[in-house]
Every structure is written in C-alpha cells, then in structure tokens.
Amino acid sequence: MAIAGIDIGGTKIIVAVADEQMNIRGRARFDTKAERGPLPVVQDMKNALHRLLKETGVPVESLSSIGIGCGGPLNRRTGVVLTVPNLPGWNGLPLVDLFAEEFDCKTLLENDANAAALGEARLGAGRGFEDFAYFTVSTGIGGGIIAGGKVYHGTDDNAGEFGHQIILPDGPRCNCGNWGCLESLASGTAIARRTREKLAGGRFSKMLEMVGGDIAKADAQVAAEAARMGDSLALDIWEETGKYLGLGVANIINILNPKRVVIGGGVSKVGDLLFEPARRVAKARAMRDLARVADIVPAELGDDGGILGALCLALEPEG
Ligand SMILES: [Zn+2]
User: Fold this and answer.
1) Listed residues: CB within 5 A of ion ligand 1
2) Quick one: DSSP state of residue 75?
3) CA gap 124, 146 in Å, rounded
4) Over the range 264-289, which residues count as b (16 or more CB within 10 Å of their CB) and which as e?
5) How far is CA 189 from CA 139, 175, 218, in A?
6) pTM of the full predicted structure?
7) Distance CA 106, CA 183 (A)
8) 165 FRET partner, CA 20 to 30 A, in 27, 77, 140, 183?
9) What are phi and psi of 93, to 5 degrees?
C-alpha cells in the first residue's frame, strides 16, 4: 500500500508518494500560480499525483490515503477550505471530496501549521513528547498544539493561532485586522518592515550598503546577514524579534504547560540570533515552574516539514 501527501502553499505546492513506513518514493514540486483560481491548481495537483503513482509503479487502487496540508482557516470535518488569505477564490472549495472522488481513497485535510506540528510529533523534534507546542515563523506566524499525542483542534479546527496573540495592544496593524499581534511584530514580513523603518530613521548600518541604498530591498535575510557580520542595528533587530517571540512563547508556556516548544519555519533558520533572546525572554517571563520544564528547540524537519506533515496526516485515523 502507498500513501500520498500534498502540501499547498500560496507560492508552491509539493506532492509526494510514500510507503506506509514513510519512505518517500517520489515527489513533485511546482508553482501554485494561485492567481488562476482554485480549479486549475487542483487539476495540477491531481495530474502530479497521477504522474507520481505511474512513475513509482503504484496502481491507483493501492493508494490507501491522502493527507493534505493547506493554509487555514478550513473545516477539517467537511474537508472544505475557507477564506485562505494567499489562495484567492478558494472559499468553499470541497478539497477533500475532489481528491477522494478522483483517487477513491480516504482523504484528510489539515491546517498547514497543524500538519507541520504533526510531522514534528511523529518524525521530528516532538518525537516521544505527548504534549508540545509548535510555532512556525515564516512570512506569517502559525502554531500547532499537540496534546496527548494528537493535534488539538478546538471548536472549529482553528486552535493554535499563536501568531495572533496580542503582544502590544497599540502595536502595528496585523493581517488579521487586529493590532500588535505576534505576527505583526516577529514574522518575516514584520522583521522586514521594522528593518526598513529603522534604516529610514537614519541610524548607520552596513545594511544600507548591502541593499545599494534602496531601503525597500531590506528584509529579514539582509538583517540576518548583517547581524552575522556584527552590524549593531541588525543585532538590535534580532534581539527585539527574539524578545517578541519569547513573550509569545511565554504566554503559550503559561497556557499549555508544554514539556517542549518547537520552533520552525523559514525565519527560524537564522538560529541563535533568534533562539537566544527568545529562550531568555520566554524563561524570564513565563511562570517559573512552568518555564523550568519547557525546553525551546528548533524544528528538525526543515523545508520538508510541510510535506512530511501531510504524509503523517495520511496515516492518522479519520475523525
Ligand atoms: Zn493578527
């Protein structure tokens, strides 16, 4: 028997076929081109899966289940996607039915951050931990809660929105419409904005030279490179980012009392520049007894977190 995973992002999609021991037999990666609307994108995914099954010699009848990770919000039980900000026109799309009918097998849908948390739980930094919290810090900030070895979903499947906890009541406007959410302060997008604001403020920085004087080109990547070269403005930016993230982690430690907090996503690859202040602030600001038992570690699955999470989802029981 074989399983399939699909990791749907606003810019790229990964489809993979694996055996039930999670050995990936084939994978395809392509641009979403979300501006075309949902149906051509769905067709691309179906075509890719058919092609992978053929290439790996798996007859369609041997495909036992498909796991799909997709940006939320979505309704897991009906398998319908709701208003995903980076997938225009997908509201109401019955994604699970579209795949279950085409491939005639069990198909499960999960919010992408929850799928990545599940991947870490089964194969990564959360292995052996019944209770842990997962943060993903990239363009935005997402989260997933593993409780008793399972994803905790909440009433409408939307639990774990760690990026939208309010850190500064009068802070910057967030994508969700609120102000001062963690995402508006510590996501890749927010780091870029804060970097540009600080450069525009006139303080000297190597970053100005690195972007050829064009402040609009400064982003989290530039801030990371400059910080590694010892640039004091860039170091301040990461210290501040780590502080915001650490406050967010402290809140989650106080609420969930996890044994472990796993932090993944593209921005987390910067490593100690982010983790050192985040750990320091989380430990200082969470309640002492809860902080003591919670270690704060990087995710282990890296760029494969999304697709491995989708494959792990395929092996979960329905419901
Ligand atoms: Zn928000």
Assistant:
1) 164, 174, 176, 178, 181
2) E
3) 13
4) bbbbbbbeebbbebbbebbbebbeee
5) 5, 10, 11
6) 0.93
7) 34
8) 77
9) -70, 125
Domain ranges of the chain: 2-118+304-314, 127-300
Question: Fold for domain 2-118+304-314?
Answer: Nucleotidyltransferase; domain 5 (3.30.420)
| Sequence-ordered list of residues with C-beta below 8 angstroms from that of 83, at least 6 positions apart, any chain | 73, 90, 91
Confidence of residue 156 (pLDDT cuts 50, 70, 90): confident
Tell how far the Cα of 165 is from the centroid of ligand 1, in angstroms.
7
Quickly state the pLDDT bin for 72 (edges 50, 70, 90).
confident
The sheet carrying 24-31 orders its strands as 24-31, 12-19, 2-8, 63-70, 106-111
pLDDT classification of 201: cutoffs 50, 70, 90: very high
Q: How large is the average pLDDT for residues 224-249? A: 98
**Average pLDDT of the chain, as a whole number:** 96
- In the predicted model, what is the mean pLDDT of residues 39-43? 97
220 CA to middle of ligand 1, Å?
A: 19
Same fold across 2-118+304-314 and 127-300: yes
Dist. CA 285 → ligand 1 center (Å)? 22
The architecture that CATH gives domain 127-300 is 2-Layer Sandwich (3.30)
CA 128 distance to own-chain centroid: 21
| Distance from residue 171's CA to the centre of ligand 1 (Å) | 11
Residue whose entry in the numeric block shows the structure tokens 């905790």: 152
Tokens of 307: 């697709």
Whether residue 196 is predicted with pLDDT greater than 90 in this model: the reply is yes
Alpha-helix residue ranges (DSSP H) falling in 93-182: 95-103, 112-123
Mean pLDDT, residues 117-124: 97
Peptide bond into 73 cis (omega under 30): yes
